[in-house]
Amino acid sequence: MNLIVIISLAIGLVLLVFGAEILVQGASRLASALGLSPLIIGLTIVAYGTSTPELAVSLQANWSGEASLALGNVVGSNIFNVLCILGISAVITPLVVAQQLIRLDVPLMVLLSILVLFMGWNGNIDRIEGIILSLGGIAYTLFLLKQGNQEDEEVQEEYEEEEHSWVNKIPLPPLVVNWLLVVGGIGLLVLGSRFLIDSSIAIAEHFGLSRLIIGLTIVAAGTSLPELATSVVASMRGKRDIAVGNVIGSNIFNILVVLGLSSTFSPQGLDVSEAALRLDIPVMIAVAIACLPIFFTGNRIDRWEGLVFLAYYGAYTAYLVLDATQHEGLSAFSYILSLFVIPLTVITLGTLTWRAWRRKPSPSLARAVGSSSLPEDLDQD
Predict the structure, then answer these.
(1) Where along the chain do its domains lie?
(2) Residue 265 and residue 262: Cα distance in Å, rounded?
(3) DSSP assignment of 59-126, as one string?
């Protein structure tokens, strides 16, 4: 593997991140000019905009005949989003979990993850199933629009800050600038995805790794950089509910839209390998299910829970590498996971859930049920 491949990979990642950023900037301003509220813009365009790299890469991989890379990108991104992005964000500062996420979005993420397993059980997600997923994405977006009638003061303030963005310094009419940003962002996403896929294939061939493994690791982490940047910055600015919502919304978008469109625009559908059915999709489901007890025990994700997320992502990645290289330590590593780590996790989650159900909510927590803001007594780190 030569230096050009590494440079090509880096260029692809940079183009994807920058392309997603300017696409979101332009699309947000166009939507605002059409009279959409900042809350609606944040729930739809901005949230989905951070997932455009996944969409661009998966479609490009599908058209290039690398269906396993497209599937690995979606599954790997969803695992990375929860374990790594939420983990890092929670380590920075404990995260708030809004009640809407607990009641609706997280259960929906769990059901969609299970649906992917059922759809791919026969080894293929066909065009009809892809259309069903895509229509589900449209329905979910329409639901968000309906729910976003009332503007949130925090989101309003966030968009007022955008008035001082670098975009306003461009000496062109605002409408022209916004359209240029949208078109330019799409172009950078397409170009960046091409760089990323070509370099990833070269890396896979050099190390003898499968396209699925590369999609689950390098490509998944690379296309999730916009979500990582958004959630980390939101955490540092104290907008911790936005950090969580961004991750959950992106995961739902990845399944409904990215996987749906990838299957829809492929004549043969999207092939699902035995390895994905045996390990990766079940891990995606397990990660989604694990969010439920962690999220509703106290309406927050504490630092220790963030560290647990990061540890699990490290263990998952290590297993992928050991399995792909058939390392002699694979059996011992698997034994430790199955005998100690997994049972301990199940016991811990079960205990947290049981305590949450038995604990009578305090008055401040009861008031929080009807509000996405965090009570003062829970807002202390």
Answers:
(1) 3-320+343-359
(2) 6
(3) HHHHHTT-HHHHHHHHHHHHHHIIIIIIHHHHHHSPEE--HHIIIIIHHHHHHHHHHHHHHTTTSEE-
Q: How far apart are CA 186 and CA 193, in angstroms?
A: 11
> CATH code for 3-320+343-359?
1.20.1420.30
Residue 329 has pLDDT above 50, yes or no: yes
Contact predicate 188/18, CB 8 Å: yes
Task: State the amino acid at position 36 in one-letter form.
Answer: L
Mean pLDDT over the full length of the chain: 76
Tell me if 251 sits within 8 A of 287, measured CB to CB.
no
Characterize the bridge pairing of strands 270-271 and 300-301. unpaired
Q: How far lies 153's CA from each of 91, 158, 159, in Å?
A: 26, 9, 10
CA separation for the pair 41, 33 (Å, rounded) = 11
When pLDDT is cut at 50, 70 and 90, the band that residue 200 belongs to is confident
Write the CA distances from 257 to 21, 134, 375, integer angstroms. 19, 5, 35
Three-state SS sequence of 199-221: HHHHHHHHHCCCHHHHHHHHHHH
Model pTM? 0.75
Task: Choose from 23-32, 93-102, 104-113, 343-352 the range with maximum mean pLDDT.
Answer: 104-113
In the chain, what percentage of residues exceed pLDDT 90? Answer: 13
CA-nearest of 199, 218, 190, 212 to 271 is 212
Q: Residue holding tokens 């449209």?
A: 138
Dihedral angle over CA of 353, 107, 76, 119, nearest 10: 130
Cα atoms in the 13 Å half-sphere on the side-chain side of 263: 28
What digits encode the pLDDT tens for the residues 293-312? 777 766 778 888 888 889 88
